[in-house]
Amino acid sequence: MENKLEHNFSKFEQIEQIDQNGIEFWSARDLSKVLDYSEYRNFKPVIEKAKEACENSGEEIGNHFVEFHEMVKIGYGAERGFDDGVKLSRYACYLIVQNADPAKEVVALGQTYFAVQTRIQEIQKLDEYNQLSSEDEKRLFLRNEMVKHNIHLAATAKEAGVIKLIDYAIFQNHGYKGLYGGLDAKGIHNKKGLKKSQQILDHMNSTELAANLFRATQTEEKLKNDKIKGKADANKTHFEVGAKVRKTIQELGGTMPENLPVAESIKDVEKEKSKLEQQSKKLK
CB burial class (10 A; 0-12, 13-18, 19+) of residue 77? Predict the structure, then answer.
């Protein structure tokens, strides 16, 4: 029997459509029904909030929200045309569920679904990642992505009011606590048997790195989209995002990050890669 998460994920998948150019989209009217909005007019303000979030994130609204004349079945095979139809991209759906009524359980599940799927799609679009075959190559790629996104996250957290180094350390620990079931950086070190000098991220396998990358990117987006201000609210946001990623892993039957095996130092992997590249150049 499919569980509640799978059941609701299938709802979102069932209303996905493909246009004449082979591009996926969702009808805003269909999405409103899945998200338990009985009246489409009550859903329109949510669309407007999502458009604002889209613009604030630096994206072109027209690339994600496209107005069209929509034909809707009204019973007995009859259809009625509406001029307020909106074609939504996957990213637009993600923004909408982030701005929908959080009291609705299906909205929370929708947030998880579109956040996960949007991130997976982003990674899949990266040709460089698709060409990687070994675990070491994937680790190097994701570790470099973590470096870039941690810089972005730090800048966004600073705008929210996380200024001092000690404040940022506390902010990071809140994200770890959410994702690792209450463990902060020190607790993760102890759990995994790492030395104080060893960085946690350097000893993660690709699965654990992907979970942390997802935590970092989604926290950055939420801080921006929700215009979070103040250290306490920034910390709370980071914890909640981490906890949501953990819940997703749990519901999909994955291994909790604190229980994943400790990987060889990424620095050793980088050295070996550099050594092989040097040897390859000498043979040419």
Answer: exposed
Backbone angles phi, psi at 36, to 5 degrees: 65, 35
Number of domains in the chain: 2
**86 with 221, same domain?**
no
Residue 121 tokens, joined: 């799609």
Residues 185 and 68 in one domain: no
Q: Assess if residue 108 is contained within a domain.
A: no
**Which residue among 39, 64, 99 closes a domain?**
99
Q: Helix (H, G, I), strand (E, B), or coil: what is residue 240?
A: helix
**pLDDT tens digits in sequence order for the chain, 284 residues long:** 334 444 455 677 788 888 888 888 999 999 999 888 989 999 999 999 999 888 877 788 998 999 888 776 666 666 666 677 899 998 888 889 888 887 787 887 777 677 666 666 666 556 666 677 788 888 998 888 888 888 889 999 999 999 998 999 999 999 999 999 999 999 999 999 998 889 999 999 999 998 999 899 989 989 988 899 999 999 999 999 999 899 888 887 889 999 999 999 998 988 888 887 777 777 76
Residue range(s) defining the domain that contains residue 191 = 126-271
Tell me whether residue 113 is in a domain.
Answer: no
